[in-house]
Backbone:
């Protein structure tokens, strides 16, 4: 397949998706203020699943087949949606959206460590280790100040978001082994399975039927399901199909920055010097580890690691 440089349309879609996923931290904060985190996660996932099932029906797609594929779908449902979505929503009860966006920015660096452990063809090298060390310094700059005050609610919430980032990282390694020809059908089943998993916990740990939230909170939850989970997934596949997975991976650099900008505009959350330093160091660490920006890649290319909801 011939190589080509991404065009203006590719960059437009990449910026659009980074703006959508970057704004998710703001919408989660708005929703979780009135809707309990596990309940919000279950509703969000069910809305996304319904939307994508309709897309499957309209485009006449078939459900994935094979016991091995379904076991991988189940594992990805846990690590790629059910667990991280719940942890992020729970953590953002006390963590502001801009800080949450920066914390989630470490996901690519954690993925490199997990890939080194669980794969045979993606090992750490000096460049990746250097990038990880720089990113870790950035993380310490952000979390270290909270850690000085002991095991406070803010620190526990930060650790929950870091656990969510690690879960996403494990999912990124997992989906590299997934043999699913129709990726849209596969991710639809992943989201549906995630919703089914989370729902019982919502009833066990919370009381979904007793939630009394306003229009703003419910609008945020619906937007998280339909736009951030479902429509954003379709945009993701469009980007990968047009410009390749390497080009798409630059989203990891853009989403935390977009999240900080959204938080500043809508929550007046002006990042302090430590937050800006952390964002800069984490971004620099990712750039070092990746060897710079991926400005060109095969189009289309196999969606290596592209099933990130």
Residues:
């Amino acid at each position: 397949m011939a190589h080509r440089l991404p065009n203006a349309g590719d960059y437009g879609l990449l910026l659009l998706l980074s703006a959508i996923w970057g704004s998710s931290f703001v919408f989660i904060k708005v929703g979780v203020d009135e809707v309990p985190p596990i309940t919000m996660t279950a509703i969000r996932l069910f809305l996304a699943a319904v939307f994508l099932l309709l897309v499957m029906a309209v485009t006449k797609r078939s459900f994935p087949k094979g016991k091995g594929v379904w076991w991988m779908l189940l594992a990805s449902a846990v690590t790629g949606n059910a667990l991280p979505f719940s942890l992020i929503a729970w953590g953002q009860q006390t963590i502001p959206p801009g800080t949450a966006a920066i914390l989630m920015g470490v996901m690519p660096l954690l993925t490199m460590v997990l890939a080194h452990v669980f794969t045979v063809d993606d090992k750490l090298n000096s460049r990746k280790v250097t990038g990880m060390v720089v990113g870790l310094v950035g993380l310490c700059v952000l979390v270290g100040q909270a850690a000085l005050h002991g095991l406070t609610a803010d620190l526990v919430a930060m650790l929950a978001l870091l656990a969510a980032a690690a879960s996403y990282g494990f999912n990124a390694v997992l989906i590299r082994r997934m043999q699913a020809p129709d990726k849209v059908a596969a991710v639809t089943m992943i989201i549906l399975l995630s919703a089914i998993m989370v729902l019982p916990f919502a009833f066990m740990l919370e009381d979904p039927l007793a939630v009394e939230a306003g229009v703003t909170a419910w609008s945020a939850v619906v937007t998280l399901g339909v736009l951030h989970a479902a429509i954003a997934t379709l945009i993701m596949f469009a980007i990968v199909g047009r410009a390749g997975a390497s080009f798409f991976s630059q989203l990891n650099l853009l989403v935390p920055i977009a999240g900080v900008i959204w938080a500043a505009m809508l929550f007046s959350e002006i990042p302090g010097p430590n937050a800006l330093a952390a964002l800069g160091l984490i971004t620099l660490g990712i750039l070092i580890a990746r060897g710079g920006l991926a400005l060109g890649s095969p189009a289309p290319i196999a969606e290596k690691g592209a099933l990130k909801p």
Confidence is low (pLDDT under 50) at residues 295-309. The radius of gyration is 19 Å.
